[in-house]
Amino acid sequence: MSVRSYIIDDRERKTFLLDREVLVSEDILRQEMAHIFGRCWIYVGHASELGAPGDFRSRKVAGRPVIFCRDQAGEFHCLFNTCRHRGAIVCTQREGNARRFMCIYHGWTYGNDGQLMRVPGDDAYASGFDKAAHGLRRPARFEDYRGFWFMCLDAEASPLHDYLAGAKDYIDLVIDQSPSGQMQIIAGVQEYDVAANWKLMVENSVDDYHLPSTHSTWLNFMANSGVKIEPPPKEAGLVLPTKGLAVELGNGHFTTDNVNFRGRPVAKWIPLYGEPAKAEIDDIRSELVTRLGAERARRVADTNRNLVIFPNLVINDGSSVTVRTFYPEGVGKMHVTAWALGPVEESENARARRLDAFLTFYGPGGFATPDDVEALELVQQGLANWSEDRWSEMSRGMGKEGEQLNSDEHHLRIFWRRWNELMGAAA
Amino acid sequence: MTAPVTATDLITRAQVEDFLYHEAALLDEWRLDAWQELLTDDACYYVPSNDQPQSDHRHALFLIADDRERIRQRIIRVQDPNCHAEYPKSRTRRMIANVRILGVEGDLITVAANFVCYRFRRYERVREYVGAYRYLLRRVGDGFRIRERRVLIDAHELGNLGSVSFIL
Fold first, then answer.
1. Which CATH architecture group holds A176-424?
2. What ipTM did this prediction achieve?
3. A26, A67, B133, B142: which has the fewest Cβ within 10 Å?
């Protein structure tokens, strides 16, 4: 088996180039389904979406229809939403509470733990027919870290806890917003397609280099709302009013780690929130200091981060907290699902402020995301020239030792090196 | 100035339709400064997330939940050539039908209407936004002003509609 590299990672000349074929090739997409989505831990859902035994959500995870549910004993399951008999979807509702899922085709009925309970006319089968062996199939592995549930199709994969590596510290930092350590997915999901390869969303989610050019209207809006948008400090490479770093977290995961200038519901007031919010944000902040100490409280409240868990989960802990996942629906199209995440004990006003802050930047009607979508779609359109203009340039920041900025491309290179490692050996 | 509404001061569907058609024309023609003049000083503009059409924006994540100031900022943004999602601007054409006056309370009129909004961009197939408008109109003199404008999209998810980067 030959090894192909899709990147030119020249550390002597300090250049990094990406072969654009990886963004346009149907063959490569097919290989990704096996070697990326078939081997990595993929985000399924959050424990808070299933509050009670019997609760379920049907959704697609990396394109596969699954039922994310709890059984009568309260145990969490991820079941393939495919009847063992002839293959029909057995759960057609988006969400609800059910003891059983009945296939409408011939009536095979499964418990909310996936076990096959009923087969109409089962006396017509030979005596060896074993109901116990015909429960709904499920991914080889299904594990959670602090309420974030992931599935893995590879039985041999390392445990989720090990897979997440350094990303756990940043998930912890997000969860520390909650006094009880419990965050919840808030009602209302944003599901939209982007006519671009799914990997472009990974890049875009952490690339702070694009902010001034792609999001100048958002920066203007912030300035119009009383937020100070200072020129970048005089340090090489800075493009934003405050400094931020790109941090490698292992196994292809990475994050930005930025000094905040854009306000945080927990807990940094900006004029956009309005004067009446000041007192409550002060209270939220003192709770952080009391519970976590001054230094950790500063990390939670005064820094923000966009975290990528390889390959396709992004937690943007910025103007609000988003949990965002996406999967390919063809080589030039992805489906994005985005939720808002907040502390369970948040007051009504704090929750409303969080949701409002979300919409100032994120989502299909936000003041920034539509321009990200536009940028990614323009990339995909431009890639039609890939065979004559083959390489994407991703060397920013390679010329220096030590720390890498959020506006460098260090973290993008981390993604692509890991992707290349998983894919290249398979070529 | 708000004129008192009397029993003889009936509001007809035709009057409401004329107002909504006028508004649709301003939006399709991108005459957004003129459109803003149709709004009250406390106007709101909501587009709920597709799975939560009946929710309250303080409890559920919406696509858009603008108060008057946010609408002003949104208009500044979409008129800026650096609003890349709308530069060049989408061409839109909206059809409004099934207009109903659901209730009148004081100077406030609740109105429902169906809409189809076709959106065209270069090199793209048409995107069809289909749904219902819910208005709270305020009677002002001989005409109306928009106190609340709620857009309920029928699609189960936005999907290939992509963004709502224009005023829907």
1. Alpha-Beta Complex (3.90)
2. 0.96
3. B142
